[in-house]
Amino acid sequence: MKKKLNYIPFFVGILFSLNGVAQTNAWPETKNVNKPWARWWWMGSAVDKPNLKSSLIDFQKVGIGGVEITPIYGVKGAENNFIDYLSPKYMEMLGYTVKIADSLGLQVDMVLGTGWPYGGSQVTLPHAATKLVVEKYEVKKNEQFNKEIKVDPAKEKVPAQLLAVAAYGADGSYTDLTSLLKGNTLNWKAKKTDYTLYAVFAGKTGQQVKRAAPGGKGYTLDHYSEEALNAYVVPFDKALVGFEGKLRAIFNDSYEVYGTDFTPKFLEEFEKLRGYDLKKYLPQLLSKEDSEIGNRIKSDYRETISDLLLHKFDLPWTKWANAKNYKTKLQAHGSPGNLIDLYASADIPECETFGSMPYDIPGFRREKEDVREGDADPVMLKFSSSAAHIAGKPLTSSETFTWLRDHFKTALSQCKPEAEDLMLNGINHIFLHGSTYSPKEAQWPGWKFYASVNFNATNSIWEDAPGLFNYIANCQSLLQAGKSDNETLLYYPIYDTWGKSLEGNLFFQFKIHSLKEWLHGTPFYDTTKKLMNNGYSVDFISDSFIAQAKVENGKIVLPGNTYKSLVVPNCDKMPLTTLEKLIELKKAGAAIIFEGLPKSVPGFKDYEVQNVKLATLISSNNTIVNPVTDLFKALAQANEQPETLVKTGLKFIRRDLNGEKIYYLVNHTAKTIEGFIPLAVANKEVLILDPLNRNVGNAVVKKEGQTTLVKLRIESGKSYILKTENTASEKPWKYYDATAEPIALKGDWKLTFEKGGPTLPAPVKVSTLESWTKISPETEAFSGTALYTLQFDAPKVAADNWQLNLGDVRESAKIWLNGEYIGDAWSVPFTINLGKLKKGKNELKVQVTNLSANRVIDMEKKGKEWKIFYEINMVDKDYNKFDATKWSPMPSGLLGPVTITPLKNDVN
After folding, report:
1. Are 578 and 546 contacting, i.e. CB atoms less than 8 angstroms apart?
2. Quick check: helix, strand or coil at residue 775?
3. Tell me: the pLDDT tens digits for 686-716?
4. How far apart are CA 638 and CA 489, in angstroms?
5. Phi-psi bin for 298: left (phi > 0), alpha (psi -120 to 50), beta?
6. In what order do the strands lie in the sheet with 764-766?
């Protein structure tokens, strides 16, 4: 009896379109929003119409759906071509870009400024980013204080605006002296006791726009002032006349406005929002001690900053954009506020990843010397997608692949799992970071942005980039369909962070790169991980969205979706109004599950009275708010059925499309996962869709009670999309078994270098597959595309199909068999099914493209300078001076071993 090996699913009878993608009615038509988009850096805004057009054509050809324009610093030697931001010439170029993009089926987003964060020449000092400055004076009893109050000019380069002066007596008294000021001079006598005077100033951070383009330099904007925002958009109101509805969205980058913890009207706004005069408690606010009163006042301060950012900037900004028929796209992370509410204030919430994450996929390369360690965390990613889901925003975007590897060293295969982790956590609108505008006449490697990766036609990976981009588009076409099918809400207790001393620092940013400071190790984080690891789909919810919740038929209804339950993790502080609303929802029939109960209300005003009310509310509703001892049992009682497929090691996300379910499954484990995979749906047929090639077919299923079991085999590094249906709509998915061990393809390969540089090496024959860098000095320096050709005899083995395994590919490949194009192989594992072989001689052609690194090494060793950019110029992944002469040549070409495996159709 022949030993049965493994089986590889393959759908035969594929009809390929012009770009090599199989066509079927099961796949939705790919739209530009399904495709990845690119942040497009305009260096010096030194753009011209011919190069804009050719660049947009390049984008369209490889499968990019749109661009996000960000003007930045320029290129040395191109000064005569610099264009000032928002000048008539700039607007002409922007208009031309929109026109050509539209003709190509692309769309255009833009940043409301240059570089980042928002700011520029129109920002006057009163509207510039502001910080709290306090000067203290000690005044003895009976001493006359008569002097001008001002900030030490050695500490503050920009004059600060004096707002208030208050006296704090040694006897605990408080006196507001602001009304006694004559200009900035105070004449006052300390009569009763010794006093400490606090003078409050609105100082200026002095921060300038980072990486500004010509015409875009200036102060960073005050993000807590609607007055400042209104003044800021005046130039755009004028410049963008006629662009209404022609630009897709206005973008706002991550909150990198440093040290801005104040605004000139902060004291008045604080009293309106928090209900008391902050000036009375300045000593407690500014104290570095970890005290209850001080922490409560600091919490109120931080909440006020959050409220001002949301209501005085983010929401008015979206309103302004929407009035011009633009959407908004916001990176809220880094903000000193509630990320859920801030993300939700935009039409498209956007997260980001930075650096490289590890994966257990065999053959997935992550050389330590080439990577910047990433800190992407699924829990952090879900803040943006949760905001989209609960607020009813169909898209969640991501700045993707930032510093994935060092310059010129990123392979397409290394991009795939990073993109998958984003999509698995609710991101369905990926933006490449990024692509630099580079005119055709620029010396290779062209103009480059300092942060890797650069996706454009001067990078050798562009040759096979359509493979990656089509894969993302195929996934996103279904991940944008229908709506999120997450069933569990998890309350985010932000007051537990705001209410901490935080080492006495007033200003606290919820940064994506400092999760240990505010996320990791918290009960909220631990509960999120526990739920996700056990197959529950989770969205986060804030206090303000709880306030909007309703109950219908036992489900929690929010503006964007409905949920079966809401889990409250262990938390220390919760507003009384939030707990009241949760009890109201539970009494109305909602499943509100408490892991623990809050011990206190947040904030300072009347907190003792509020705490008594909190305790009374809990005790009078003790049966309703009784914490559970078994979270999963409580979820089961809420009719939640977890996806037990996670026990196999598969990652998943699920969506609902008109009552049917869409599952995106990814295998990032080290092993093949096969067998009957359980889906938490009853009595369904299931379509299998392969986003790598758009193959599709109906799966073999078993129906057991409330579960449908789907026969699958997912190799490490692979993914599938499953779609449930009531009746089978496609031909059966064809499963194949290997009938023998892999057979090595041996012989003399003809190696022909087709395109690239610095020169095309001469053709050679190779009998042993190894890096082409070992052949000659010319091949060592070569970056580009080469063709491997092999004649081989078909094995005398019966087979319905043959699987080709290219082994180690550096870095991507296209495959032809007997003159017929089979497809591409750009991700791990580098396998593809060939169909049937001819009897006798067969010809295999494999076109391989390597990375651009070796050519850059050669350039720098020869002293050819290409780093000609202003400001930061070029740096490596660790922000040190870029120096490729220290690099070793990167293995290139077809390293093998190359094998073929006979397959037999498994009809069972």
Report:
1. yes
2. coil
3. 999 999 999 999 999 999 999 999 999 999 9
4. 12
5. alpha
6. 764-766, 749-757, 783-793, 841-849, 812-817, 820-825
344, 349, 355, 359: CA torsion to nearest 10: 90
- Say if residue 899 is exposed, middle or buried (CB neighbours under 10 Å; 0-12, 13-18, 19+): middle
d(CA 830, CA 811): 10
Whether residue 417 has a cis bond before it, omega within 30° of 0: no
- Characterize the bridge pairing of strands 219-220 and 249-252: unpaired
Any residues with CB less than 8 A from the CB of 787 and at least 6 apart, and which?
750, 751, 752, 754, 845, 846, 847, 848
Distance set, CA 211 to CA 40, 93, 451 (Å): 14, 20, 12
pLDDT of 12 reads: 31
On whether the CB atoms of residues 249 and 327 are closer than 8 A, the answer is yes
Q: Are strands 195-204 and 130-139 parallel, antiparallel or unpaired?
A: antiparallel
- Report the b/e string of 466-498 with b at 16+ CB within 10 A: bbbbbbbbbbbbbbbbbbbbbbbbbbbbbbbbb
Assess whether pLDDT exceeds 90 at residue 458: yes
Sign, CA dihedral 714-720-725-731, equals negative
CB 807 within 8 A of CB 899: yes
Q: Which residues pair with 436 in a beta bridge?
A: 41
Q: What is the pLDDT of residue 908?
A: 58
| Residues whose CB is less than 8 angstroms from the CB of residue 415 and which lie 6 or more positions away in sequence, other chains included | 401, 404, 453, 468
Other Cβ atoms within 10 Å of 323 Cβ, number: 9
Q: How far apart are CA 538 and CA 523, in angstroms?
A: 15
Contact 782, 892 (CB under 8 A): yes
Q: What is the mean pLDDT of residues 92-100?
A: 98
The tokens for 69 are 């324009």
Are 756 and 704 spatial neighbours (Cβ–Cβ below 8 Å)?
no
Q: E strand or H helix at 270, and its extent?
A: helix 266-274
CB 818 within 8 A of CB 788: no
Looking at residue 156, what is its pLDDT? 85
Q: Is the dihedral angle over the CA atoms 534, 536, 539, 544 positive or is it negative?
A: negative
pLDDT digits (tens, 9 = 90+) for 128-187: 999 999 999 999 999 999 999 999 888 788 889 999 999 999 999 999 999 999 999 999
**Per-residue b/e over 197-235, b at no fewer than 16 CB within 10 Å?**
bbbbbbbbbebbbbbbbbbbbbbbbbbbbbebbebbbee
Measured distance CA(370)–CA(521) in Å, rounded: 30
Tell me the C-alpha distance between 737 and 732, whole Å: 16
Give the torsion sign (CA, 501, 502, 503, 506): negative
pTM of the shown model: 0.96
Judge contact between 422 and 380, C-beta under 8 A: no
| Closest to 453 in 3D by CA, of 499, 492, 419, 402 | 402
- Cα 816 to chain centroid distance, Å, stands at 36
Residue carrying the six token digits 């921060």 = 207
The Cα 867–Cα 450 span in angstroms is: 10
Q: Compute the distance between CA of residue 619 and CA of residue 623 in angstroms, rounded to an integer.
A: 9
Q: Angle at which helices 465-479 and 49-62 pack, to 10 degrees?
A: 70
pLDDT surpasses 50 at 1: no
For residue 900 the two structure tokens come to 């073929």
Whether 24 has a pLDDT exceeding 80, the answer reads no
In tens, the pLDDT along 79-90 reads 999 999 999 999
Tell me the C-alpha distance between 81 and 44, whole Å: 8
Burial of 288 (0-12, 13-18, 19+ CB in 10 A): exposed
Q: Which amino acid type is present at position 426?
A: G
Which CB contacts under 8 angstroms, 24+ apart, belong to 544-553?
544/338, 544/341, 545/340, 545/341, 545/344, 545/390, 545/391, 546/491, 546/578, 546/581, 546/582, 546/585, 547/577, 547/578, 547/581, 549/581, 549/585, 549/590, 551/585, 551/588, 551/589, 551/590, 553/589
